[in-house]
């Protein structure tokens, strides 16, 4: 494309487009480092030339063709698309004499979760925000004041993007449609990161005999016949992603290797079909809703298909967890409980010590109250379980630790101590888990 932009002799899009044949025959394509991204680029150019961007089904069709030829290569969408450089927000502002406000400087905050490519949508018709009248884009529930959407031809050909290729080829395209397409690629990129067997590294394939399409498929197995791991892997987007309230949207992909199913044990199920529900989202905690259970039930009746075992019982007993406000631990499947009562009881105990522990010092700081306590590990573990923060002191005595004010606005799993933040609508990831 760089040579094409310089009008080099013997270079045409037809010759470039022929590379698609090599990307599907990996033995030749690998020699030239032609990967999944290259084929998305070439197919996108063909599609936009015809008036439309690729849709999700078309992209998964390209994915299917790739995996038919090679199950070893790691799949990713690299290069060729405008990267998200982080969310830019006002840093320093000023108020003008006429009372209007203006931005003096911007600062960057971390990239939103699961975003690789810029997908911001311009504010209003003029693209300006209401407060500062500054260029502004809406992205994942927040404003960004400096999106990576200039689409100018860069000096270095290695930085060319799909939008630049359109310009080089004089192909007109809708700019909003282009960045909506990058939003779709963000969604698919999340999916690709889960599409490898964790035992041998080969790409997973649909667990359906004689069927190799990846579009709207949720159950997969390892494609390597030599791999000992024949576990079925469930992959699907979170139920929370379908909610309309911005604060409750979830962009997580549920992977059965990372979570467990919710359950209806307290409703006295007769068998495992009645006992278990969908996999719990290990980000927002969504699992099932009565509305979704009833919708599936009605669809099966209308289409005269076989009723899913246990579904009729679930609908009759109204077991949907979303409507009940019930959250289940994604690690062990235990229903999580409110910690407020246990939290307050433990704080009261700290203020009235008995012979099982000793308060050495206490006080308050910017984060709330704290106690320096000497006790056994069981005592400190109980403090953690009710939601208090426990940290080591600088001394040598491992029985002396700080217990500090925690958070009563969350749920807790009494089996494995997993915590859930009700205000943020998400599980609390401990530092040790983040390191892993």
Task: Write structural notes for this entry.
The chain has helices spanning 2-5, 13-17, 19-24, 26-29, 36-49, 56-69, 162-168, 175-192, 272-275, 290-302, 311-317, 321-324, 340-351, 377-385, 431-435; strands spanning 87-95, 101-109, 121-122, 137-139, 142-144, 204-206, 219-222, 233-237, 253-255, 261-263, 276-279, 337-338, 358-365, 368-374, 389-392, 400-404, 410-412, 419-421, 426-428. The chain has 436 residues and is of the alpha+beta class. It has four domains: 2-78 and 171-193, no CATH class; 87-150, no CATH class; 219-324, no CATH class; 337-435, 2-Layer Sandwich (Gyrase A, domain 2), CATH 3.30.1360. The chain has a four-stranded antiparallel β-sheet with strand order 6-7-8-9, with no helix packed on it. It has a four-stranded antiparallel β-sheet with strand order 12-17-18-19, with no helix packed on it. Strand 17 (410-412) and strand 18 (419-421) form a beta hairpin. Helix 10 (290-302) packs across helix 11 (311-317). The protein starts with a helix and ends with a helix. The model is unreliable at 24-33 and 241-248 (pLDDT under 50).
